[in-house]
Design a protein that fits this description.
This protein is of the alpha+beta class. It has a single domain, classed as NADH Oxidase. Helices cover 47% and strands 13% of the residues. The chain has a four-stranded antiparallel sheet, with helices on both faces. Bound molecules: flavin mononucleotide. The site of flavin mononucleotide has 10 residues, from loops.
Length: 202
Amino acid sequence: MKQQLAELFHRRFACHLFEAERTIAPADIEYILEAGRLSPSAFGLEPWKFLVVQSHDLKLALQTACFQQQQVGTAGAVIVILAKLAELAPDSTYAQRLLAREYPGEQYDLALANYRNFCAATDLRAWSVTQCHIAAANMMTATTALGLDSCAIGGFLPDQVKQVLHIDPAQYEVALVLPVGYCAEEAHEKLRLPLAELVDYR
Ligand SMILES: Cc1cc2nc3c(=O)[nH]c(=O)nc-3n(C[C@H](O)[C@H](O)[C@H](O)COP(=O)(O)O)c2cc1C
């Protein structure tokens, strides 16, 4: 298990071109989505929503919204990860439902008060998007485990992505566009700094 996971981290790479004619089995898409669903989130609020785009025309429209990056148009599926906005407000039915689940019984009132204070001091949009990136990382690892590839796409015009997918900007921010599929190029060399340059032990 330990060795297999390390291999997945080494094997995953950003694929810049997919085999456009190859679709992804529904069970594989579900496996990837499940990795997102099971990801950790602050206060257990699961601040993400996943849109699975498989329509050829929509993929091409998304490619345009992503500065014509061809991995978007050629992917078997493009998973657009949306960050919840309005639902994270402390007075929303959604936030209160999930807080009551995470902090049941007598813990709830204090948890809600703490959450209210936290929200008053926090950029909720940035906070929500950041957590979606955690889900995205897990989804990319899951994609590699299936023998498929992915490419995180942060290079997009958020307003255009929302327009293409009819997303209400008051409800969601676009966190990440994640094309997945069968890669049509060779894996490239992994370029990483050594741990010695990244880590201090204190
Ligand atoms: C948040 C984020 C946004 C990214 N946006 C893009 C992008 O718009 N286009 C792209 O080709 N790669 C994008 N990447 C992929 C990185 O360029 C890639 O992960 C990095 O160069 C390391 O290469 P590797 O993933 O193949 O190891 C993004 C990665 C992350 C984590």
